[in-house]
Amino acid sequence: MGQTFDLIVIIASLGMGILLLTGHGDFVLNSRNDKTFEKRYDKRKVELASGVAFVISGVLTIIDMIIRTRTSSIIYLVLVIIDFAALFIYMNKKCKK
Questions:
Q1: Residue 96: beta bridge partners?
Q2: Distance from first CA to last CA of the chain, Å, rounded?
Q3: What is the CB neighbour count within 10 angstroms for residue 10?
Q4: Residue 97 pLDDT
Q5: Using one digit for the tens of pLDDT, what is the confidence trace for 5-57?
Q6: CA-CA distance, 28 to 16, in Å (whole number)?
Q7: What pLDDT score was predicted for residue 32?
Q8: By CB count within 10 A, which of 23, 29, 89, 97 is most buried?
Q9: Alpha-carbon distance 68 to 63, whole Å?
């Protein structure tokens, strides 16, 4: 069951990451407050940053799937949290208009 979930996470995160990096994944970032989002942020920079974060999380999941120890799982969790924290910090510092 664990490997099946890992495969789903890998496919989803790499797929969304590649879509965002190529510019075809704007539907992933759409929200109800799209106009306020576009006023605050450069949408292309946010797409690129989000794409990189999703690809990194997919690669981290692949590594965690290969190396199955308790220590690697803890390191994986910490690195994924750091990955998305860095995304939000980058969005607030570099992607604002």
A1: 41
A2: 44
A3: 18
A4: 81
A5: 889 999 999 999 999 999 888 787 776 667 787 788 888 898 899 999 999 99
A6: 8
A7: 61
A8: 29
A9: 9
Question: 3-state DSSP: the chain helix, strand, coil percent, rounded to 5?
Answer: 85, 0, 15
Q: What is the pLDDT of residues 12-21, one digit of tens each?
A: 999 999 999 9
Report the amino acid identity of residue 55.
V
Q: Are 47 and 24 contacting, i.e. CB atoms less than 8 angstroms apart?
A: no
Rounded distance, CA 23 to CA 67, Å?
32
| N residues, the chain | 97
Provide the token pair at 88: 């939000």
Token output for 44? 């292309």
What is the residue whose two structure tokens read 């989002």? 37
pTM for the model = 0.86
Side chain identity, residue 41:
Y
